[in-house]
Write a structure and sequence with these properties.
Elements: H1 3-23, H2 38-52, H3 56-68, H4 101-114, H5 121-135, H6 155-161, H7 169-177, H8 183-189, E1 197-199, H9 222-231, E2 241-243, H10 255-261, H11 268-275, H12 279-289, H13 291-306
Antiparallel strand pairs: 1-2
The structure holds protoporphyrin IX containing FE and 2-acetamido-2-deoxy-beta-D-glucopyranose (2 copies).
Length: 326
């Protein structure tokens, strides 16, 4: 080989080498030598906390989602307000709604005492989301790790980039494609609503005067409508809670999709997946009759969501307190 040929080949090699490093920033087993018990510590804290509060797994999965959709999966959602910025906690979709922050604090404290300054808050959210799926009966997956934490948050991002429950299917798809996720990821990740609860204010617009029509949303099955109207009467307590999955509220299964086919979706953004003619409806049908297909796709889509714009070395920091940007 000529010298020129060799030099050229080396360039090509290094080009593809760095390209691949750039693409696969996160990896499984990232803490294998730096904090070998990291994942088992998270798991045992999630399990302890769930014994006190059966809603917690749902809240933790949602925290990871609301983190990843704003500035990427960088734990920005966990930051309290500082003198230089207002955090994301009081954004419309989050205020008086996101929960689980104290449990993340407990997990972080436990990790700091075992492996000081090693495990990021963003990775804690990703691991806790996986453990929350498993503990409620859902799928498991190997969590890609190596995210680092932001030093800033974005209140305006949280207000504009987290999808609204009033959205149409096309608006929901746009919110996901804006984050590099697919329509299929959206159909699949919506299945997280197989667990957890929503406040009356998140769906009461459907119950009496849907989009100013003077009528309830006709896609709500009559018996279900009655029970929602009595749980969330006009002028009643807007913070009262209803299960997102009326059939199996605390079990991670495919019942969410069967509910949709029966007009028993709680949020508008849930129900439109089966009432709007198109691909979404085909996924709802497929998942309602094939739980293992839903589970394996859910695992894959959670990995995709966890890959949204992570901060990796040399960017970001490892916070010592998940609420504070230092
Ligand atoms: C597709 C667009 C989505 C919309 C419009 C949406 C909207 C909502 C709303 C309005 C609530 C109830 C909040 C409240 O009333 O306090 C909620 C709860 C929840 N969401 Fe979503 N969500 C979406 C996607 C997702 C995704 C992708 C995940 C996770 C992968 C997720 C997981 C959850 C969970 C688990 C809860 C219950 C939380 C708890 O009980 O604390 N959602 N969502
Ligand atoms: C958040 O909720 C509290 C009530 O708990 C309210 O006082 C505050 O105004 C809300 N913040 C925003 C920005 O809506
Ligand atoms: C329904 O809402 C529309 C617009 O928001 C309003 O004009 C109308 O009076 C309401 N109808 C009833 C029956 O409350």
């Amino acid at each position: 080989m000529t010298l020129v040929g060799f030099v050229l080949m080396s360039y090509v090699f290094f080009f593809f080498f760095f390209l691949s490093v750039g693409r696969c920033q996160l990896q499984t087993g990232f803490y294998a030598s730096s904090c070998p018990n990291a994942e088992s510590i998270v798991k045992s804290e999630v399990s302890k906390a769930t014994q006190q509060d059966s809603r917690l797994p749902a809240s933790l999965i949602r925290l990871h989602f609301h983190d990843c959709f704003v500035q990427g999966c960088d734990a920005s959602v966990l930051l309290d307000d500082t003198s230089s910025f207002t955090g994301e906690k009081t954004a419309g979709p989050n205020n008086n709604s996101l929960r689980g922050f104290e449990v993340i604090d407990t997990i972080k404290a436990s990790l700091e005492s075992s492996c000081k300054g090693v495990v990021s808050c963003a990775d804690i959210l990703a691991i806790a989301a996986r453990d929350s799926s498993v503990i409620t009966g859902g799928p498991s997956w190997d969590v890609r790790l190596g995210r680092r934490d932001s030093t800033t948050a974005s209140l305006s991002g949280a207000n504009s980039q987290i999808p609204s429950p009033a959205f149409t299917v096309n608006q929901l798809i746009s919110a996901f494609t804006a984050k590099g996720l697919s329509a299929e990821d959206m159909f699949t990740l919506s299945g997280a609503h197989t667990i957890g609860q929503a406040k009356c204010s998140s769906f009461s617009g459907r119950l009496f005067n849907n989009s100013g029509s003077g009528q309830p949303d006709p896609s709500i099955r009559p018996g279900f409508l009655k029970s929602l109207q009595s749980a969330c009467p006009q002028g009643g307590d807007a913070t009262a809670l209803q299960p997102l999955d009326v059939a199996t509220a605390t079990t991670f299964d495919n019942q969410y999709y069967s509910n949709l086919l029966l007009g028993r979706g709680l949020l508008n953004s849930d129900q439109v997946l089966s009432t709007t003619v198109g691909t979404a409806r085909n996924f709802v049908k497929a998942y309602s009759s094939d739980q293992s297909k839903f589970f394996s796709n859910f695992a894959g889509s959670m990995i995709n969501m966890g890959n949204i714009s992570p901060l990796t070395t040399p960017n970001g920091i490892i916070r010592s307190n998940c609420r504070v940007p230092s």
